[in-house]
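debug: dumping io for the single-chain case to check the tokenizer round-trip. Nothing else runs in this session.
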Amino acid sequence: MDIPVRIPSTDQTMDLYATGFNAWNQLTFDTSPVDEEPDDVFAFTKVLAAEAVGRIASQLSYTFNKIQPGPSLDHPLASFFTVKTTKDFCSTLQVLSQGMAAVRQITAYDAGFIILLEDQTVLSCGDPRFRDCLGREVDESRPASEPGVIQDLSDLGEPIKKIAAAGYTAAALTESGGLYLWGMAPPGSQSRHNVFQDISELPNYFEVDGDKDVQDIGLGESHAIALTTDGCIYIIGDNTNGQVGHGKDVQDPISSWSKIDFTPPEGWAIIAVEAGPRSSFIVTKKVKQSQSS
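debug: decoded output
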């Protein structure tokens, strides 16, 4: 099936492309009824055009994004959803409000939460059974259930600009383009592909295509997508639902970072990437043309 593209009446300056799991039409932003059974999307497809596209939040049954102009958009099946928090995380929010820097970003994954503060400090908290996913030491004085500083990231000596997490893997991206990952392989009862074979319980630097600087990163439960500073898109991991955009014929997981053939239209540039559990997104922006004298 062809995916309808939602285009506001005003002049659009940003486009959103998506690929991956689409069982609930969660990659379709058009609100008109769809008679066809939704199919997964196996190649990056334009799904939204807007004056501005904000940060994408995607889960298995919905995709949420705030655009300009207009209200936040998501699929009708997910028009009303509740963000549930555990008792431990409620206490975490209380701790964060007591004398710490403001929160810039919070991301959740199967083992807990990763928190980025405005002073570039990164904290983690979560399930003590999966302490390898927390990126820090856990003991009686530094319990898993309370936010604790990931000291290895603080010791890097450069600011963290973004965090990402999904499944049992977490990532931190530095201002200079360094990508750091930590976590563990999925538990034995789960059939997810282990994307990063050399991952460990503490943050380690991971190269992308011969040590390229990374501009943006997105993590799924069994895949990842990266945008390098030279404007290239790289993917790695499972393609069962098309989440790395390699087409239906690619059944085996991509075991190392692979550059994809994605070129925006002339006059447009790639500015961001994101990932849901089984989906990937690319954001492009119209480049302002300089006036010749």
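debug: round-trip ok. The longest helix spans residues 87-96.
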